[in-house]
Amino acid sequence: MSIHEEMMSLALGEAKKAYGMGEIPVGAVMVHDGAVIAAAHNLRETSGDPTAHAEILAIREAAMQIGTRRLNDCTLYVTLEPCPMCAGALSMACVGKCYFGARDERQGCVESVYALTQDAAFYHRLPCIGGVLANECSELLLHFFKQRRTKDKGVRQRDD
User: Is 61 a catalytic site residue?
Assistant: First the structure.
C-alpha cells in the first residue's frame, strides 16, 4: 500500500464516521511532515453549519496545530473531490497539495466541473490528484445515497 493509499484509508475511516451519523460520508486528513495533524468528517447536519465540510474542518484544525494560516507544507487527503467552497478554502489556506478519491461530476471544483485550484486569478495554485482509492470512496457514497433514497421512499409510502 502506498503512502497515498494509507492516508486515503484514514480519510475513509473519517467518512465512515460521518456515515454512521447520517452525514454525507466524506472524510479528510491533513498531513504535515509525514504525520497526520488533522482528521475530520462532514458535520453539516449535526452542527447545523453549512460550512462544516470535512475539508474545511481539517484545514481549521491543521492551522491551529501548526500555528499558521499558511499550510504550504501540508497535504490534504479527502474522499470526494472538493466542492467550490472547499476548493477556494484550499487555495486561500495555501495548502501544498490535495489528493482525492471519488470524482464529483456535479460539483467538483478541482478537476471535474472546474479547476478552481489552478485558476490564474488566484494567488495560490495547488496540484490536486484524483483517483486514490476511488472505488472504495465511490462505493461508500453510492451506498449512503441508495440507503437514503430507500429510507425516504419508505417514509413517503407510509405517509400516503
Answer: no
CB of 53 closer than 8 Å to CB of 44: yes
108's grid cell: 467538483
Q: Could you tell me the three cell numbers for 68?
A: 499558521
Q: Which residues pair with 31 in a beta bridge?
A: 36, 75
Nearest residue to 81 (alpha-carbon basis) of 122, 28, 146, 44: 28
Which sign, positive or negative, has the C-alpha torsion 15, 17, 19, 23? negative
pTM score, two decimals?
0.93
Rg of the chain's alpha carbons, rounded to an integer?
16
- In terms of DSSP H, where are the helices of 80-133? 84-92
Q: Which of 55, 81, 111, 139 is catalytic?
A: 55
pLDDT band at 154 (very low <50, low <70, confident <90, very high): low
Give the separation between CA 146 and CA 37, rounded to whole angstroms.
33
pLDDT in tens, 46-80: 999 999 999 999 999 999 999 999 999 999 999 99
